[in-house]
Amino acid sequence: MSHRSDVPHPSEMPRPNDVPHPSEMPRPSTADSTTPAPPLHMPGSAPGRSWAAVRARLEREGHVVVTATWGEWLTAALTDPALRPLLGRDWQRYRRTENAVARYRFVTSRMLVKHTAAAVLDTDPAALELAYRIGGRPFLRGFDQLDVSLSHTGDLLVVAVSRTGRIGVDAEPVDREIPFGVLGRRMCTPAEAALLAGLTPELQARGLLRLWTLKEAYTKALGQGMRLGFTEFGFGDDGTPVTADGSPAPGGAWAFTTHPVLDGRYLVSTACQDTGLDPARDLTARTMLDPEFTGAVRTARDREPGGPPRRAL
Amino acid sequence: MNRPPVTTPRPGRPEGGAPLLAAAQQRAARLEALLGDPRDPANPHSSAALAAADTRGAPPEPTEALLGEAGVGAECVPVAAGGLFTRADLLLAALRPVFRRDLALGLGAAPLAAAAPVWAVGDARQRRRTAQLLLNGGRLAVVTGELAHANALTRGGPSAHRARDGWILHGRKDLVRDAHRAGAWVVHARTAPGRSVFLLEPGLLPADAVRTLPGAPASGLRGTPLSALEFTHCPLPADTLLGRPGQGTALALRTFQLDRCLVAGAAVAAAETVLRLAAHTVFAGRDTRTVRRRHTALAPLFADLLACDSMATVALRALSLPAGRTPLTTAALSQVVLDVLRENLEDLIGVLGTHGHTPGSAHAVRDKLARDLPHASLGHTGTAACHAVIVPQLRGLAAHSWFRGAAPPPALFRTGADLPELKHRLPPAADGGDLLSAALLSSAERLAHVPRADGARTVLAALARAFTGELHELRRRCTALPDAFDPAAVVLSDRFALLQGAAAVLGVWEGQDGTDAFLAEPAWAVLALSRLARRLGITAPAPPEDCVTQVLDELARRGRSDRDCALDGGAPTY
């Protein structure tokens, strides 16, 4: 989705300690640990313990990143008798995509989003509608307790979900080179460029790819409608975004993470917002309608002379 | 089932709408003049001064004092109780200058939702005390009950049980806005059965049974600080109860409804400031060709703001209609307004870039509103409560109301037209009717007869047809909903809300009397409705290029001359 095929790439993998420090994000149960947890790999749709890990991570940390390869989900997608209702309004787009690989990536990424969301909301994936904002940002219609972002490149699928605010995720293959020339300068703030200029080509490339994925993730989190120029904001040493003139970047408190995934073949960065509301940890669909409100509405509805017969929800 | 049309306002009421609107606008002009130029650094009520208070997490004291002296507290006291309140849309019109400057300042000065239970079911003494408090510039805090999927702002709360000569209140609410400086608290408490609401005056409670503690620092609406309120087996006299025991859920629903509409209207006013500043920044000194070439991205945001203003205005005006249909309409419209505004504030980051971030700049005002908005809207908890109002009605609406009900009175959509006063008595929460879907069908029917040659109107007609088609689809899917809770109903509730939004936009466009030539033209409605169609993911015609240009040119005109960028369109009066 965020895939920019014109971007080439560094030869060496960023180590986990290159990862920016998570900033203002509340992380109650990981207070003792400064390293953000790596993405969870979900090689299929079988229910069970693995989804419990996704739910637990989301409850504990406020967001979770799930990875898979499209190959791991393809059989499940193609043999799912309910694929059409599952894809819903994406069905036509799926059918229209002529390139087979693109079609498989499309269908499996939608499977991964819906199964992840359904596991968290404790509902049937086909009951959910994956819709798109005008700028292209995907969202789960009606369920704003979850913000979602997805990215795919090569054989990798990544889905990020958050309950604390906007989230954006971006993935790039580590062997994609971003030359520290014209392109590099076009995506860096002067401060970033100055920092990178003093490094060896290897470290430069590594740093550039990290910056690229972080910037992609952040602009995706802010909405993809009108992209913020990559030189409009940069990442300081502490990992917090700052604008080119040094003021804090818009959008409130953010946490950023970068991780290697799939045996280090890809780099995944996540930008996660915290709107400061400390939202409910219970995200399930069935508990979201206030029972007293629905009760009062139903009582009033049924009291109405000539109104509809009494019924449950 | 066929329903009689909603009673239209009786003509010739002495306190009729137009004079009332003029009076509210006069009060607004006075406030605007008192608050002065927000960009003047020497003005103690400037954007920069309000932002500085917000940064400190402290109330902007000079501005609050000014509002107190101006008698703003009277705005949410009903006329019958000695105040100025007649209708929710007029409250917003009168306080617009405050909301334009700071959401927290306005919401704190006009605690309509907090006071609503008192006006709805309070006895003579309770009404008198509350009126006195607000008329004298005092503050009223509300301890809301916990809602499903509660966040930090709504979590927890006390419960009450009966004692020999009253009640015992026990428990804690962590975050209560303005609790430490309020002259009275309206407390929603769990009781058996259900919930009950109490009106408490802190000074009359035993000091050792109540504690007000500093709350956690907030990340939004920082001008009205949060406190924790802790009751320890606090005895309450019987006469602190508002209404009857167990009436709390109905009162909470009403409180939520009023709060939600007011927040939506206030958020539109605040977002107008951001768009106006952005337009001024982007357009000042640039010629029309440059604007058209480089800044078309602002046109849809302007159309959306006009749409949000239409929806919020219709929601606030719907509160004056006598039937119990309004919770459905207000829940839907407020939800769409708050969602669209949040999205557009994010889009503005891309338009503005990040340079020029100085106090009082479009960037700074945008950032502050983006922080405030989730706190005012309550985020997911607020949306979920809206779904809780809509979802139980969907199947009944599909079976009995859609394509059968009567359209609302045209006055609902005409901002200058007369409406009955808002009745604070508790209305039935739902009566199975749906005003706006009927209005949508009427609009579509009228538009079906426009001549083909009229380009923009033809597109508008096609959009109205697309929304009508979606209502058919919605009926099909809602009819198929099972008895038990089905998560698909929440998805349909969201789709329903967008259709209500489309109906409000069409209604407000049709309700234009031609005074404002731009609003009377279909361009803005075409652009706004095509965006609502895209939000629904339905197939609809794209807006013609000249519609976009017309909307953009109007924004440029308003931006250059510093005119209001919402429906009002007026020039500043300071």
Automatic annotation (TrEMBL), chain A:
Comp. bias regions, Low complexity: 26-35
Entry keyword Transferase: yes
Pfam families linked: ACPS
A GO cellular component annotation in the UniProt record: cytosol
Domain of life: Bacteria
MF annotations from Gene Ontology: holo-[acyl-carrier-protein] synthase activity; magnesium ion binding
Residues covered by the 4'-phosphopantetheinyl transferase domain: 166-258
InterPro entries from the UniProt entry: 4-PPantetheinyl_Trfase_dom (IPR008278), 4-PPantetheinyl_Trfase_dom_sf (IPR037143), P-Pant_transferase_sf (IPR050559)
Keywords tagged on the record: Transferase
Biased composition (Pro residues): 11-25
GO biological process entries: lysine biosynthetic process via aminoadipic acid
Disordered: annotated span: 1-48
Family according to the record: Belongs to the P-Pant transferase superfamily. Gsp/Sfp/HetI/AcpT family.
Identification of the protein by name: 4'-phosphopantetheinyl transferase domain-containing protein
Organism per entry: Streptomyces finlayi
TrEMBL record, chain B:
UniProt superkingdom: Bacteria
Biased composition (Low complexity): 43-58
GO molecular function, one term: acyl-CoA dehydrogenase activity
Region (Disordered): 35-63
Stated name of the protein: Acyl-CoA dehydrogenase
Organism expressing this protein natively: Streptomyces finlayi
Taxonomic lineage: Bacteria, Bacillati, Actinomycetota, Actinomycetes, Kitasatosporales
